[in-house]
Prior knowledge:
By secondary structure, the chain is mainly α. 65% of the residues lie in helices and 0% in strands.
Amino acid sequence: xxxxxxxxxxxxxxxxxxxxxxxxxxxxxxxxxxxxxxxxxxxxxxxxxxxxxxxxxxxxxxxxxxxxxxxxxxxxxxxxxxxxxxxxxxxxxxxxxxxxxxxxxxxxxxxxxxxxxxxxxxxxxxxxxxxxxxxxxxxxxxxxxxxxxxxxxxxxxx
Length: 158
């Protein structure tokens, strides 16, 4: 199986799909379908997060699992900008609200979602182009066990 970091910069099928979702979101927003645009922008961002996880040989199916794994594996462990994790979670929440609300979603919300999703896609693209951060773990490599901190007993005698 070929990994994104082995191909280097260039076309990545998962990122192409994310860009198509973002383009669809732009068309929806441009034609007055703000709620649907927010949902499509969130899908674009989730697709790019899944590509980042796949680069680390990890997959998740449920959107909230994708967000959690992205924040843990890509943001915290692999030096991705933490803003992308917050925006990804925010987009997921905003899409859920847009899909469940009876109220019309303001076009400004759709524009904001488009900007946020575009930022996430750009950051993931840059991250994938940096093999020092996006290379999958070496086979057989394990993390060093972390010892829990010893708790101090609360005692009256010190």
